Amino acid sequence: MVDESIQIGPDPGQGGRSGPDADDLSCPVCRARFRHSRACPRCGTELTALMVLAGRAYRLRRASVAALRAGDPLRARELADQAHALHATDRGRRLRAVAALLTRRETPGP
Q: Where are the alpha helices (DSSP H) in 1-110?
């Protein structure tokens, strides 16, 4: 069983940010910082698909943390890897490292 005092990132239920890691997102065309809108404020590029992928990755990371708390590090690693493939974040890398440690696998790269 995983020590529930270990925090991978802020817990939305305790005043932390919730939702996709907006600070890690930028427009793929002009690199402008993400502003929670469907179109880039700088160049007008449609960002809905990016928002959908980031949201899916966020939900996979949350499911991964839940799997860790439920004592299933193999499932947690699978979910963390899926999230990383969709949207790599610092929190996601930490989550993958924790799951890798618990499954005694080699720590994943960047």
A: 48-69, 73-86, 90-102
